[in-house]
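Internal tracking record. Fields below are filled automatically when a chain is submitted to the structure queue. Please do not edit lines marked as system-generated. If the sequence contains nonstandard residues, flag them in the REMARKS field before resubmitting.
Queue: standard
Priority: normal
Entity type: single polypeptide chain
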Amino acid sequence: MAEEARAQGAEVDLLQIPEILSDEIRGKMHAAPRAEVPEVSPQDLTKYDGFLFGMPTRYGRAPAAVSAFFDATGGLWATGALVGKFAGVFTSTASQHGGQESTALTTLPFFAHHGIVFVPIGFAAPELTDNSEVVGGSAYGAAGVAGGDGSRAISAKEISVAKFQARSFSNLLATFVAGKTA
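SYSTEM-GENERATED OUTPUT FOLLOWS
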């Protein structure tokens, strides 16, 4: 997604929300290894026009680490520092019906309280209405179906949906920034 957003002319920083679970617990969950990218702080969000938040699904909702991160944004909320910024969500689930939509929905209160504009993808990506095979994703954002043990690779169609989301989000932000500075 970052590569696709950059191809649209977006400036992209890859950051990760701080982890709150131990390596032992993450191993039992078959969680992917932590990326070798810097952690984001709540204050970092003020530097960006928009954010695409990627997160796994935990019991059909955003993981506790996401909640803990947004719990730490109270000072930003009090000053309205994130009002008018944009956000989208993408996720991965262990099963086809593992809560991809509900995970996105559980992020909306964070965005609404901050005045962040949620940017869904709708069903504009044709892969989302293809019933010939299992394809993750929904109107809320791109998603992958990983299997309970992480054994299923993200499919070509799921990658296509992710690229679609990155393109559409980047183009929306570029249009907004151009209008804002005109």
